[in-house]
Amino acid sequence: MDNAFYITASELAELGYENTPDELMSAEHLIYSSPATLAFNSPGAQGFGVKRAGLAVPGSVMLLVSPGCCGRNTTMQSRLCGYQDRFFYLLLDDTDIVTGRHLTKIPEAVREVCEFCEKKPSAVMICITCVDALLGTDMDRVSRKCEELAGVPVVPCYMYALTREKKLPPMAAVRKAVYSLLKPQKRHSDAMNILGFFAPLNDDSEIYELLTGAGIRHIREISRCEDLAEYEKMSQANFNLVLNPEARYAAQQMEETLGIPYIEMMRMYHIDKIRNLYRSLGNAIGAEFDDEKYYTQAKAAVEGFKAEYGKLNFAVGEFLNADSFELAWALISYGFTVSEIYGTVGERNFVFIRKIAKLSPDTKIFSNLSPTMLDYEPSGKKIDVCIGNDAGYYHSDVPAVDWNEERQPFGYAGVKLLFEKLDEALKGGAK
Amino acid sequence: MKNLLKLLSPFAPDQSGAVGVLYELGGLVVICDAGGCAGNICGFDEPRWFTKKSAVFSAGLRDMDAILGRDDRLIEKTAKAVGQTSVRFTAVVGTPVPAVIATDYRALRRMAENKTGLPAICVDCTGTRLYDDGEQRAYLELFKTFATQKYETVKGKLGIIGCTPLASGYMTEKIFRQAYGNSAVCFGMGCGIDEIAKASECERNIVVSTGGIAAAEYMKQQFGIPFETDFPITEAMSRVLENDLNGRKILVVHQQFAANKMRELLKQRYDCDVDVATFFKLFDEFKQDDDEQLGDEEQLVNKVLGGGYDAVVIDNICNRALRQFDGELIDLPHFAVSGRLDENGGQTCLL
């Protein structure tokens, strides 16, 4: 086979999730970390990997305990993201790996790091990797020893790439870790937390106004907490709103230890579905949201764009602030064409593949990670515009919107912003 | 504490060095990891990833693959990928995961050869060692596997061993050709596996990275090809020479052969004392009296502060560790240290 593997939406929908071809299942083939995928498929290459995410606790520092190779990309991360003073490394040698003797060095290393810092850290996050996953290290025990010696809270973060498809993959585990320092306190009926991301939602998202209108005065996100005191107030929340399924386990943990219930809400780009989600959220918290204004604005943005550009043909990637298949389905529903999607097929998003199959049976579905993508060449219907850094890589001569900013788009405002960015890209503006 | 880095980040590991050697040879390279190591190599340590396609893949190991030692599954996946790409050989590069579970690379190699029908090599990397160790292992495996036949010596043909971006800061062979002539063949850069197979044609080998010494010695032993060490004069070196360093005591920190070249150039231009230090391999036969191998950032600080130096020529990412030094710090990028290429003026090369 010389060409990149793909399957059409109708073929895949017919096969069903259980019979998804091996080429679309990353566990069944070698993984191609093409330039298109590095940003999301490499731990910490861009955005929030385990290491950067672990530093979400305000004032914390991280000690990475691993062979040197695991900390290599942090050179870049430290420099670009201003984390130079927050990352420390205890490098393992061959003997450490064989004997596990590094475990006895960690408490002393934590103490030395704390003494080295100009200001005592609020917490030390200890990040361990595949080596300790295989050694079966009890890092909770080691962390307790560290706390005794250094006098600061110490939290383990597990960067276990080996467990990526498990129930608690690394990015879900690190979300649990960053909320684990919260202590039970009196809950306030006018306080809630938004969980799911390591950067805030865009300020103009209507969700803030809708929630405030429902009487919620304190909407907290970990990335908006400027200090530990603000972070600690997160345990006053009356409920947690989970916007990213990777935060579900953190929410469950908070329900168990802090008594804070949670509600899940998916980020979507189909405006009718957004309206349904707000209705469900309103029902859950006993409020009625008046979202008409925002709905109308978002609808106008879509229709205005369509009137100006007509039935454009999209390629949708997966390194973006969206579920590739939901976004593609939304675009098709709005009357556009999506001829190519590069995404990871899962049980959860298969529902959108079925919907796409009905509206656009010939849409091609590729897996970014398949070795056959080494041979990918654009073919078939000409793509007019790409969404996603990876899609932009495959169609480098086509206008593209990266749509992967750290600040998170959400709701109707997210839809509006997406079409504004598409308009900018098509007019030759910045990505 | 030894091995505790408070000011510097880890340097390029052995698996990155091995992949750097294999990258352009036309093989299918499988990094035997869960995905993170391949991501680091492709996204950080291999700048050619963004300009030149190569069949470098991650094994995508999962916990049960490691726990149960499912090598057969790895070979199945490798064979499948071989069927989907055009490659001449396969190579498995180790990482911490196979190091922990003590993977039997000889068995893996035999299994790969039997299943794919292509020659196979395995490079035993652990992720705990540095890039020049991985280069050394990869070059040696390559020459032992492919350079088995004695070809007639081609007059004037030079073999350059060690020209990788990690060691040199250059992504193409141009600078080596400029330095050593167009008849020079840069093993692993600008040529494929056929040139490795015909390596015995070379009249002489020039080793430009410490990772190339073992292979050069092997070629000398097998085919009587003599070798010497050298390094081309780079743009960054020329910039260093623009500083007035007369009468100064200078420390140059880089990989040994680049640092030796810098010393040679400094001494030609100025009346100065120059020592060499390196975080990587330091060969006794190519060192001078006060040259030193540095184990970690603490040893760097001790060497700089205790050596009475007026100037230190070093990748500027290390400046953080040398805040107490009141002499002059002059930048000499080393890709394996900072991810900064020399050929783009010392800018970080990424995405």
Topology record:
The complex is a heterodimer of chains A (431) and B (351).
Chain A lengths: L5 E3 H7 L22 H4 L8 H5 L6 E6 L7 H8 L5 E5 L2 H6 L2 H15 L7 E5 L1 H6 L3 H12 L3 E5 L11 H10 L11 E5 L10 H8 L4 E3 L7 H5 L6 E4 L5 H11 L3 E3 L6 H15 L6 H18 L3 E4 L7 H10 L3 E6 L7 H10 L4 E3 L18 E3 L1 H6 L5 E2 L9 H16 L5
Parallel strand pairs in A: 2-3, 2-4, 4-5, 6-7, 6-8, 8-9, 10-11, 10-13, 11-12, 13-14
Antiparallel strand pairs in A: 1-12
Helix pairs in contact in A: 1-16, 6-8, 9-12, 14-18, 15-16
Chain B lengths: L3 E2 L8 H9 L5 E4 L4 H10 L10 E3 L4 H6 L2 H14 L5 E4 L2 H5 L4 H12 L3 E4 L7 H16 L11 E4 L3 H4 L5 H7 L3 E3 L6 H5 L6 E4 L5 H11 L3 E3 L5 H7 L7 E5 L2 H14 L3 E6 L13 E2 L3 H10 L4 E4 L13 E4 L3 H4 L13
Parallel strand pairs in B: 2-3, 2-4, 4-5, 6-7, 6-8, 8-9, 10-11, 10-13, 11-12, 13-14
Helix pairs in contact in B: 1-2, 1-7, 4-6, 7-11
Question: Any overview of this molecule?
Answer:
The complex is a heterodimer of chains A (431) and B (351). The model of chain A has no long low-confidence stretch (mean pLDDT 92). Chain A has 3 domains: 6-30 and 291-426, Rossmann fold; 49-171, Rossmann fold; 191-265, Nitrogenase molybdenum iron protein domain (Rossmann fold). Chain A has 431 residues and is α/β, with parallel strands linked by helices. In chain A, the strands form 3 sheets. In chain A, strands 1-12-11-10-13-14 form a 6-stranded mixed β-sheet. Chain A has 18 helices and 14 strands. Chain A is 40% helix and 13% strand. By secondary structure, chain B is an alpha/beta fold. The mean pLDDT of chain B is 95. The two termini of chain B are 35 Å apart. Chain B is built from 15 helices and 14 strands. Chain B folds into 3 domains: 14-141, Nitrogenase molybdenum iron protein domain (Rossmann fold, 3-Layer(aba) Sandwich); 158-229, 3-Layer(aba) Sandwich (Rossmann fold), CATH 3.40.50.1980; 235-338, Rossmann fold. In chain B, the strands form 3 sheets. In chain B, strands 12-11-10-13-14 form a 5-stranded parallel β-sheet, sandwiched between helices. Chain B has a 4-stranded parallel β-sheet with strand order 3-2-4-5, sandwiched between helices. Chain B is globular, with a radius of gyration of 20 Å. Chains A and B meet through α2, α4, β3, α5 and α6 of A and β1, α1, α2, β3 and α3 of B. β3 (87-91) of chain A pairs antiparallel with β1 (4-5) of chain B.
